[in-house]
Write a structure and sequence with these properties.
With 641 residues, this protein is mainly beta. It has five domains: 35-120, Sandwich (Immunoglobulin-like), CATH 2.60.40; 145-251, Sandwich (Immunoglobulin-like); 261-369, Immunoglobulins (Immunoglobulin-like, Sandwich), CATH 2.60.40.10; 379-492, Immunoglobulins (Immunoglobulin-like, Sandwich); 498-603 and 618-636, Sandwich (Immunoglobulin-like), CATH 2.60.40. The chain has a five-stranded mixed beta sheet with strand order 2-9-8-4-5, with no helix packed on it. A five-stranded mixed beta sheet has the order 19-26-25-21-23, with no helix packed on it. Strand 10 and strand 11 form a beta hairpin.
């Protein structure tokens, strides 16, 4: 009995020692070193199984993989970063965790590196549907809808992109299908636009073709996936029937790597560019990545340097496979730059791949720019004159312009357009007897061309200085069109409309005898005239009181002056009436009118009879008080002073 007790004690001590040894060995085991960052494919079909490729780090010869809930997998170590695990056929459909152990030992309550794997039920490969030949007829009076045929464009849609599915729906029933509805509810694929298509009556043994745009979601793996198609209809009695079906769509899914586009070379035609030149930018685009680039867009992003010659600044390229190049041509126009030398033109590259990934990059190319005027034309309006020099509303003038070519090259096909190319900026001026455009076939360097243009001033024009733009367009010796706009200024003055004369008859007068000069000035225009003084002068008359301040005269009003004069000689004598005023430019101006009077020499009588005082009916009648009052009233009403 004692021996048995000792033997049991020995066994217990030995077991405790082994347990401590296992615990110590586990504690001494190094920390987990294995890392898993990707696995492909992440989806398998239950019927066939497949080989999983696991990417990571720290894989050793003892590393093993298992499918949690299924068991260990046949594992092959490719290198320390890649291993392969074989999943046999028959694994039930579902979502599983793929675990990887560096030591190959999987113990409970221990965390392992891994990834998620999806096992799908087998999807039968779609076959062309033969004409239905039911062995037994459907229930009487019932429509039956079936998909007779279908197609997908493109045949293998790419993940992240759209595709078109076309189904042919056939009524195999014994009654017509009323209110036929074909819908694409989505699920695996995303419908684009309307998902339901309603039709009227579908007769027995007739078909309809339904088209729907779908999109493959991002992140899907390559494989065949079901696309749900729901069909429904009523019979003439109002009974409703549902006919759900699905079709298989094969998808090109997500993989590894990315395209990488670079500009291998770039040049321009012509090689040296000048401001305003049209040129072609020829670039060689290369794909040095490890996937095909699709949907490539190449465009300029420097509008201050180059502009599109026509259309957009973006050029599209369909696709570019790995390690291949493609030529791209961008038609551009060099902007009005002032800097010479090698200038950088920025280009944007946008592209994607078959997995739906999008990429963009900014790259630059050099342009050789020359801005010197050594061999380029440059036209300037050197001078211009108008005939007459001063014009007013309603006047016709001739504008003469001297245009000089100050550049180093000849200007070809030169046109000058007053008021802009369309004449919209002519303002109060209008071309007369010709259009607003003048054409000269050629203007050699350093030469001057003289251009004449007749204009008429609008009658409603007010006094002022008017800027008149002139658009100059011409070609250089390379056929590049140059355009410039310059300004000239024309002055319009409104001339006063005055009526100057005597407000009562004067003369004939006698030499040496004083007589009155009743001068009146009437503003017959419509605008106010800022008159300062009225002056009466003559070389043959001695005049007293010949100056008076009048002040502003409104249209239709008058001002008068009555001076006293003595004729110094006989005959027809000239009298100058000067009206001084300020124009709209606050400049002093004058209107001068010449009046004439008849002076006679006095007769020397032989003797004077008593009682004869030399007066008579032919003498000048003295103005009475009532005559002066009548003249005052007429002046108040603008009918004379």
């Amino acid at each position: 009995m004692r021996r048995r007790i000792l033997a049991c004690a020995a066994v217990l001590v030995l077991g405790l020692g082994l347990a401590l040894l296992v615990v110590g060995d586990a504690a001494a085991r190094p920390a987990l070193q294995t890392t898993v960052y990707d696995v492909e494919p992440d989806t398998l079909v239950s019927e066939s199984g497949g080989t999983l490729t696991v990417y990571g780090t720290g894989f050793a010869s003892t590393t093993r993989a298992r499918l949690f809930g299924v068991g260990l997998l046949d594992t092959t170590i490719v290198n320390e970063g890649v291993l392969q695990a074989l999943v046999g056929p028959g694994v039930p459909a579902g979502a599983y965790e793929l675990q990887v152990s560096e030591s190959g030992i999987f113990t409970p309550n221990e965390t392992f590196e891994g990834a998620n794997i999806t096992i799908l039920a087998a999807t039968p490969v779609p076959q062309p549907t033969a004409l239905p030949k039911p062995t037994s007829p459907p229930p009487p009076g019932r429509p039956v809808l079936a998909i007779r045929n279908f197609s997908v464009s493109p045949a293998r849609p790419i993940v992240g992109r759209e595709f078109i599915v076309t189904v042919e729906v056939y009524n195999t029933g014994s009654r017509g299908a009323e209110n036929t509805l074909v819908g694409f509810p989505g699920g695996t694929f995303v419908p684009v636009g309307e998902t339901g298509h309603l039709y009227g009556l579908l007769h027995i043994n007739h078909t309809i073709v339904v088209t729907q745009v779908m999109r493959v979601p991002s992140g899907m793996a390559s494989g065949s996936y079901p696309l749900q198609v729901d069909m429904s209809a009523n019979d003439w009695e109002g009974n409703h029937y549902e006919f759900p079906e699905s079709i298989a769509v094969e998808v090109i899914g997500v993989g590894h790597g990315r395209p990488q586009l670079v500009i291998e070379s770039a040049r321009t035609e012509p090689q040296v560019l000048r401001p305003g030149d049209s040129f072609d930018l020829l670039i060689e685009l290369a794909n040095w990545g490890d996937r095909t680039a699709t949907g490539i867009l190449v465009g300029t992003t420097s509008p201050d340097l180059a502009l599109p010659a026509g259309g957009s600044n973006v050029v599209a390229v369909d696709s570019l496979v790995i390690n291949n190049t493609a030529p791209v041509t961008l038609p551009l126009v060099l902007a009005d730059v002032t800097t010479s030398g090698r200038l950088n033109l920025n280009l944007s590259l946008e592209y994607s791949d078959y997995t739906g990934g999008g990429y963009s990059a900014q790259q630059g190319v050099g342009l050789e720019v020359e801005t010197a005027l050594e061999d380029l034309p440059q036209l300037l309006i050197e001078s211009y004159v108008t005939e007459p020099s001063e014009v007013g509303p309603g006047d016709v003038l001739t504008l003469t312009l001297d245009v000089r070519n100050v550049g180093g090259g000849d200007a070809q096909r030169f046109t000058l357009a007053l008021g802009g190319s369309d004449g919209s900026a002519l303002g109060v001026f209008a071309p007369l007897n010709a259009g607003n455009v003048r054409f000269v076939p050629e203007v050699p360097a350093a030469e001057v061309v003289v251009l004449d243009q007749q204009l008429v001033v609008n009658a409603s024009a007010t006094s002022g200085v008017y800027s008149l733009p002139a658009a100059l367009s011409y070609d250089d010796d390379r056929g590049t069109r140059h355009e410039d706009s310059q300004l000239i200024s024309l002055i319009v003055r409104r001339q006063p409309h005055l009526q100057i004369g005597f407000y009562r008859p004067v003369g004939p007068v006698m030499v040496g005898e004083p007589f009155p000069l009743p001068v009146e000035v009437t503003n017959v225009g419509r605008n106010l005239l800022n008159v300062s003084t009225l002056v009466v002068s003559s070389d043959h008359l001695s005049i007293e009181g010949g100056t008076i301040y009048l002040g502003p005269l409104d249209g239709g009003t008058a001002g008068s002056l009555e001076a006293t004069a003595v004729a110094e000689q006989a005959g027809e004598l000239e009298l100058l009436v000067t009206v001084n005023y300020l124009d709209e430019f606050e400049q002093p101006q004058a209107v001068v009118e010449t009046l004439t009077i008849q002076a006679e020499a006095p007769e020397i009588p032989d003797e004077t009879l008593p009682g004869e005082d030399g007066g008579g009916e032919d003498g000048e009648q003295e103005e009475t008080f009532w005559d002066k009052m009548l003249r005052f009233v007429r002046g108040l009403f603008g009918m004379g002073s």
